[in-house]
Every structure is written in structure tokens, then in C-alpha cells.
Amino acid sequence: MATGPSTSIQAFREVVKSSQNIIVIAGAGLSAASGIPTFRDGGGLWRKYEAKNLATPRAFAKDPSRVWQFYHMRREKARGAEPNAAHMTIAALSVKETLRYICPNAESFTLITQNVDGLSRRALDQLTKTLASKKIFEKVTSEPQSIIEMHGRLFDTICKRCRHREANYNSPICAALEGTEVIVERQEQEPDIPLSDLPRCTQPDCGGLLRPGVVWFEEIPHHLQEIDEIVQKADLAIVVGTSSTVYPAAGYAFEVAEHGGTVAVFNLDRSDGDSEADYLFLGPCAETLPQILA
Ligand code: BJW
Ligand code: ZN
């Protein structure tokens, strides 16, 4: 008779203690408690808006005004959000000194996140500053390279003409987008902003149209080779707040299981592939992750 995943916190903690190369594979549910909408579950963005009209290169080529208004709304939401307790728990794994407490045998830790909101990076910055000011440790070794944002960043822009990529935290990113977030939220008819008024490149002699620095469907996610190497050597994959429906991210936990590693899923609800996980912890991850890991 097939048995489902274990829900034993005690047994999972033993696995964590003995693991050496740990990965977290994160999705939108990680940021849910920060007020960032998910994509596919109730209230998710793809329930309200058509992904194919907003998150594909073709959609941007056809209607950059509409796509920019959607991403402007997302930028404004992310700007007002704060990292939650789940981000902070994961951040503690990115600092060598605190990682040692949680996973005494750890040799490496990597967060592979599909999220574009930048909250994991902000959590790590906040934790590093707090630890440094409290002087609990002689030194604090924060490892920003342990966060891989495979679907890009909401606050990056890429120039369609010169390909220049840069971080842009301006609010609004251009005058014409100011206030349109309310129209998008209400799903009212959005204005058709002329191309010349959309965000433009400020590199010398360029002026090309900018696009959001995120990875759309049919585009190749970032750092795939690095991720493959990390996944291949992982002996513990902790899957947090993802529906595990979007590839290639959805395949990583399966790869870890295939080479004999342990897979633990933290999700509000049942999700794709979790019946094959070794551990399953249902509930809001801002509660379950700190309870079980910290
Ligand atoms: C909680 C919680 C709480 C809630 N606590 N949990 C057919 C078969 C296989 C593949 C394909 C196929 N057809 C097309 C493809 C490829 C396609 C794909 O996978 N499509 C599927 C939909 C089938 N993939 C791609 O196109 C990717 N590129 C690609 O494949 O390139 C080719 C290639 C790759 C590798 C090698 C060689 C070639 C690119 C995918 C880009 C995805 N882009 C988006 C938008 C990013 C920008 C933006 O933000 O707008 O990324 S789509 C969206 O989905 C976003 C997310 O990162 C991604 C994943 O969503 P996620 O994070 O899982 O969110 P949800 O909402 O789905 O789930 C949330 C979960 O949280 C739920 O389970 C809740 O229960 C849970 N939750 N609250 C804990 N409090
Ligand atoms: Zn340019």
C-alpha cells in the first residue's frame, strides 16, 4: 500500500541536521503573507488577468502599454511590502553563522526563487544588519550569491535596443504610468499610452524602449547551468509556496528525489507532485517554516 509523505516535524528536523547541501525552491506563496498576490490559487493574478496577454514576449510586442501598466501595478505593490517570517527563516540559512545552528553539517545553502519581488534579498539585508548590530557573532558572513532569482527581478529593466539591464526603483517608473495601478486593479479599460511616453533607456544615444527585467513564458530562465549543478549535488530540497506547475523550476525537487535526496514541501494546500515528497507541511509558510526550521 502506498504511503503519503510524512508530517513528522521531529523526523524532518533530524534530516535537516544531517543534510549537507540544502536548497529551497520557492514560489509566490512565500510572499503571500507580505501581501503579494500569487498566480494560480484563489485571488491569484492569472485568475484575474490573462497570462498570455501579459507575460509573454508576444504580449509585450503587441501591447507594451498594457504590459507596462500591469508591471507598474506589481512594482508599486512590491515596493510597499515587507519581508515576512518565512523570508526571514530562509535568510537565516543564507548567513553562515546562523546556518550552522539550524543545519550543523551544512556545506552549502542556495535559495532558488521564482519570485521577482526582491523580498528574499531584502530579508537577507535586514537580518545581516540586525545580527551585525547585536554583535552576537564575531562576524556575519552573509552570502548574497546564495539567492538565485531565476525569473528575474521586477525592479530591473532591459533596453529593447541596446540590451542594457539595470535596477530601477523609481516610483512611478515614468510619469505616464502614475495612477494607472488603480485602473489595472479595478480591471477598468486602461489608457493606451504612446510608446514615446513609456519607460525609455537613458544610456547615451539610445532612448530605446525598456521592458521589465522578468522572465516571461517561452523565455529562458536565468542561471540554469549554475542551478543544475546545485540541484545535482543537493541532498535536501525544501519546496516552499509553489504550485510546481512551471518548468524548469517544477522539475528540480523531482531531480533531487531521483538521486536519493530528501524532498520536503511547505504549502498552504496540496500541490503538484507533493504526494511523492518525503515530508509535507500544510499551512501558511510564514507560520510553518519558522515553527519547524528555526
Ligand atoms: C502558500 C501560501 C502561503 C499560497 N504559504 N503556500 C508544457 C509542458 C512543460 C513545460 C511547458 C509546457 N508548455 C510550456 C512550457 C514551458 C513553460 C511552462 O512551464 N509552462 C507551464 C505553465 C506548463 N515554461 C517556460 O516558458 C519557462 N521557460 C522555458 O521553459 O524555457 C525553455 C527552456 C527552459 C530550460 C531549458 C531549456 C529551455 C519560463 C517560465 C517563466 C514564468 N514566468 C512567470 C512570470 C514571471 C514574471 C512575473 O512575475 O510577472 O513566473 S509565470 C508565474 O509562474 C511566475 C512564477 O514565478 C511562476 C510559478 O508560479 P508559482 O510561484 O508556483 O505561483 P503559483 O501561484 O502557481 O503557486 C503558489 C503556491 O503557493 C500555491 O501552490 C499555493 O497553494 C501556495 N500558497 N499562499 C504557503 N501563505
Ligand atoms: Zn538602450
Automatic annotation (TrEMBL):
It comes from the Eukaryota. This is DHS-like NAD/FAD-binding domain-containing protein. It comes from Thelephora ganbajun (Ganba fungus).
